[in-house]
Amino acid sequence: MNLIVFPILIYYIVTIQGNPIIIDTFEDDWDYNIPPEDKPLLLPNEIHHPLPAVGKLQSIKKPVIIDDNHINASNAELGDAVRRKISCSLCKLGVLLLKNEVNQGTPVQEIRGKFITICVDFKIENEVVCSGIFDVFAPDVLPVLNTTTIGVAQICSLCLGEVCGDVENPLHEWSVQFPVEKKPSLKEKLNYVGDAPTFKVLHLSDTHFDPNYEEGSPANCEEPLCCHPYSTPNSTETLEPAGKWGSYSKCDMPKILIEHMLRHIAEEHKDIDYIIWTGDLPPHDVWNQTRGGNLYILEESVKQMEEAFPNIPIFPSLGNHEGVPAGSFPPPWVTETDASTSWLYTELSKQWSKWLPSSVNNTIFHGAFYSVLLRPGFRLISLNMNYCMSVNWWLVVNSTDPAKQLQWLIHELQEAEDKGEKVHIIGHIPPGDSDCLKVWSENFYKIIDRYEQTITAQFYGHTHTDEFEVFYDAETYKRPTGIAYIGPSITTYENQNPGYRIYYVDGDHNKTTRDVLDHETWITDLGKANEPNSEPHWFKSYSAREAYGMETLKPEEWDNLIDAMAKDKDLFKLFYKYYYKESPVRPVCDDKCELQILCDLKSGRSHYRHHICRELEEIFAN
Ligand SMILES: [Zn+2]
Ligand SMILES: [Zn+2]
C-alpha cells in the first residue's frame, strides 16, 4: 500500500493576533529508519511473584455486589465532556460561523465577541470559561479554519466521529506502508510456566494534579472544573465543600492525596520492577492553562515520582492535557517556534532523560515517542497518541501519519519480529477510543493485526475508567489478536475513587511469553478518607484472575469475558463496580449504557462500532 502524501505543497502564511504561522510544506524529511535502542534497561529478574488462585465465576456472581441506594448520578453523565456538551449540529454551526468570519478577515477581537455570545447563549459555559476557551484555543483553531480546504460537515465528522455521520473525506484517507516481509504463520501460543520469575509493574495514569485545589471551596460549581477558591458556586444547588483528600464532583487531585498514594505504593510494593506512567498530569481547567503552568506541573510531577521511587525505572508517555491548548500537538510540519511543540518536547526530553537513554532523544524531539529494550527479547514502545487525537486541530489541515509515527512503529516492530523480541506498547489515548481519529485508528489496527505475535500487550489511560479493548483480526473481526489495558485514573474526575494498577508480567526464562499474567487494582474509599480525623486507606480492590475466573489473560479470554457479561447481568454489575473503582456515586447503568460499555471493550478500532458491535446489539435487542 502506498503512503498517500497530500499533493498540497502550498506556502501558507496565516496571521493570527499578529503572529504569522508558516506552513511551507507537509513533507516531513525525518528519517524513521534508525537503529533500535539495544541496551537492556532492567536488571535480570529472578523473583517469582505468586499469583492468586483463579476465581470461580459461579461463586462470585451471587453475592449482592452493589448498594444501589448510594448511586445518585444519572447515566446521562456517561461519555466524554466534548460529546456531552457539543452535539454534531452545534459543532457545524460553530465551525461554520467561525470559518466564515476567519475567511472574511474579520478582526480577532470581533470574532472573540461573537464566539463568547454564542457560547454563553447556547449555555455551553459561563462567560469566564467561554472567553478563556477563546483566548487559549483561538491561536490554534482560527489558523486551522483559515487554512483547511475541507468543508464544515467534514471537519465535524473528523473531530466528533461517528456521531457526526460517516462523511466522505478523501483528503483524510491514507495508508501506512508495510515491509515486504510476509506475516509469519500463526504459532501455537505458549502458556506461562507456573513458578517462573515474573515482573511486577506499576501503572499510574491520569494524575490531573491541581495545584489550585482548596479544601472547603465549592465542589459543585458552574465551571467545568471546581474545587478552586475562585469557583462560582452553583446557583441552583446547595454548596458542597471540597474534601481534604479530593471530591467526587468535577474536581481534580490535591497534592496531599497524590503524595499520600505515592508514599503508600513505595511502602506497600517494595518489589516493583518498573513503572509505566501514561500521562495527563495537569488539571481539567483547559480554559485557564498556560505553557508555563503546564511545564510547572510536569516538573513537579517528575519530582514527586523521583522522590517516591528513586531506584525504579519509569517509562512515561504523553497525555493530551500536557498540550496548550489541551489536545494541541502540531505535527513537525508546523515549524514556527511559537506554534510548534518545541516548548514541550524540549522540556520532556530533559525530564524524561532521568529514566531514558540519550539515544531516544531523536524520536522524543521529533514526536515525543520512543522505543527501549527492557530485557533481551523484551521491548517497550511508548507512543504519542495525541497524533490521533480528534480535537488536535492541526490534524484537520493534514492528518497523514503525523510525525511519521506509525511508519516508525512498523519499522520498530519489524526489527523486533526479526530478532524474536516481544513488545509492550504504552500510550495515553486508547486507539479504539472515540477521541482517536478513525483513519489513524484503522491504520493502527492493521499494524496490531500484522504484528499480533510480537505485541503481547498494550497499556493506556485517558478514559479514567477501568476497562480494556480487545483487538480482532482485521479481516473478519472475529479472532482475538490483541489486548489493550486501560488503567484506572488517579484522579476522581468524575465520580471515581482514586486508584492505581499492578501488572504481573511473564519474566526472564527460556519459555517466557511476556504476557500479562494477572492484574490488581488498588483504590481508596474517598468518602471514608474525608471523614473527620481520617486519612486514605489504600486496599486491593480486585485481581482479574480472582474476580473474573481467568486462567490466563490472553486476548481470547477477555473476549470470552465480554460475551459472558452480555449474557449475565450480575457479572456485568461486578465489572461495572470496578469500572468506577467501587465509587458510591457512580452513575446508574441501564441497558443502553451496558451495551455502550461492552461495545467499547470490543472496539480496538475507533468509529467502527456499527461493524464490530453488531452481534452485541442483537443480543441486547432480544
Ligand atoms: Zn485524563
Ligand atoms: Zn486524556
UniProtKB/TrEMBL annotation:
GO CC, alphabetical: extracellular space; lysosome; membrane
Signal peptide: 1-18
An example Gene Ontology biological process: ceramide biosynthetic process
Pfam family name, one: Metallophos
EC supergroup of this enzyme: hydrolase
Main location: secreted
EC number: 3.1.4.12
Keyword Disulfide bond: yes
CC cofactor: Zn(2+)
Entry annotated with the keyword Hydrolase: yes
Family: Belongs to the acid sphingomyelinase family.
Full protein name: Sphingomyelin phosphodiesterase
Source species of the chain: Popillia japonica
Classification of source organism: Eukaryota, Metazoa, Ecdysozoa, Arthropoda, Hexapoda
